[in-house]
Each structure stands twice: as structure tokens, then as C-alpha cells.
Amino acid sequence: MENIQAFEKVIGYTFKNKELLRIALTHSSYANENKLPRDNERLEFLGDSVLGFVTAEYLFSEYKSRPEGELTKLRAAVVCEKSLFKFGEKISLGDYIYMGKGEENSGGRNRPSIVSDAFEAVIAAMYIDGGIEIVKPYILSFITEAVKREANFKDNKSLLQEEIQKSKGNTIFYEELGESGPDHEKVFRFAVKINGEVVGMGEGRSKKEAEQAAAGAALEALGV
Fold first, then answer.
1. Where are the beta strands (DSSP E) in 104-214?
2. How confident is the model at residue 86 (pLDDT cuts 50, 70, 90)?
3. CA 170 to CA 196: how far, in whole Å?
4. Catalytic residue among 44, 120, 163, 211
5. Phi (first) and psi of residue 87, to 5 degrees
6. Residue tagged active-site, from 39, 48, 129, 163
7. Taking residues 68-81, what's their average pLDDT?
8. pTM for this one?
9. Most buried of the four, 24, 88, 142, 193, by CB within 10 Å?
């Protein structure tokens, strides 16, 4: 119970149904170890949808000129595991999760998948307990800055394209140099050529990632 009350102070919301929050903070390893009937996986499922909806609504109202494709990419970037893990870190969520001894001893409290899932579960618990009017401003307190960062982000390829277009007649071409590794762990190598000359090379787990790496190397070589 102390864990619950301490976490309520962190998030600034007091649950009417404390059991909801307890379940939201219960990892499957703890439930299995203590033979509990429920863990946070079902709440995680609902929380994912609540986060997606609030984020989509915010993007729809704030970025009226952005096409559907861009909004979809923005939403995906903001509610991905990496972002949710960072949100969880802000409230030290890992410290409050009930988890099995084995999971805890293997670093579970700092594992992105566990913390991000628990964040979704907490969002769902708040939604059920207090309604959308409670959970919406709480979600927005996390996503607004993340949205701004992503909305203003330009990838390396776009930045390089802008740079070479400053002078007329420049051409840019990405050339695949090869690949290595087994099928499930392939590494691709790409070079980027400006006016036929190699300016940067990069590697990645996908062709797009390798092109981005090559563009980044080119930007560095050009002093951008």
C-alpha cells in the first residue's frame, strides 16, 4: 500500500480504486511468482489506445497543415517504446513496479519494454478511474514537448538535400556497397555521392538506416 500512495504523490492523482493502480504496477513476473490472478498486460492494451487517441487528437488540432502521412509518423514516434520509456523515467516508474525477484535481479526496473508497458497500464488505470478529463491533461504533460521535437526534426538525408541545393547543378546519389551478416542480422553499407564523388559512407540494419548514416557522415565532412 505504501508503494501505491507514494506513486500517487508522484503522478499527482489519488485513485478512487487503489486496486486499479496496483494492477497497473504489477508485472507478470510478480503475478506469477505470487500466484496473483492479474497483471498489467490487459491495462497496457487499453493504455496504448488511450495514448494513441489523445496524441492523435492533439496532432490533428495543433498541426492543421500537416498531411495524414506526417501525422501518422509523428504519432508513431511520440508513443513508441523509446518515448514511453523516457516518460516513465521522468516519474521514476521503474522504482514502483511490482516485479519478480529474477526479473528485478536481471535489471528489469530499467528495461525499456517493462517500463513503457507499465506507463501504458498506468494511463489506462487513470482513464478507467477518473475518465478522459483526468488522463488527457496528464498525457499532454508528457507528449507536447516530444511532439515539438519530432515535428521540427529533419533527417540527415533531408538536411543533406537542402545543403546541396544551395548551389545549382549539384547531384546526389546513394550507392549500395554491399551487405554482410546472416539474414536475421544483416548489415547494409551505403555511400553517398555528390557530383559523382563519395562524400560519406555508412552502415545500418536496413537500407534506409545505412543511407541515413551515410548522409550523416557527408554532413560532417561538409562541416554542416
1. 172-180, 187-194, 197-204
2. very high
3. 10
4. 120
5. -60, -45
6. 48
7. 87
8. 0.70
9. 24
Amino acid at 85: F
d(CA 196, CA 33): 62
Question: Do 172 and 193 contact (CB within 8 A), yes or no?
Answer: yes
- For residue 125, what is its C-alpha cell? 488505470
Does residue 80 sit in helix, strand or coil?
coil
- Give the three-state DSSP class for 106: coil
Q: Which of 79, 122, 74, 68 is nearest to 98 (CA)?
A: 122
Q: Where are the beta strands (DSSP E) in the chain?
A: 172-180, 187-194, 197-204
CB 218 within 8 A of CB 206: no
Active site residue 120: yes
Q: How far apart are CA 41 and CA 64, in angstroms?
A: 35
48 is catalytic: yes
Q: Which residues contact 90 (CB under 8 A, 6 or more apart)?
A: 142
Residue carrying C-alpha cell 526534426: 153
Q: Given the C-alpha cell 506513486, which residue does it identify?
A: 7
Distances (CA, A) of 189 to 40, 66, 178, 193, 210: 41, 33, 5, 13, 6
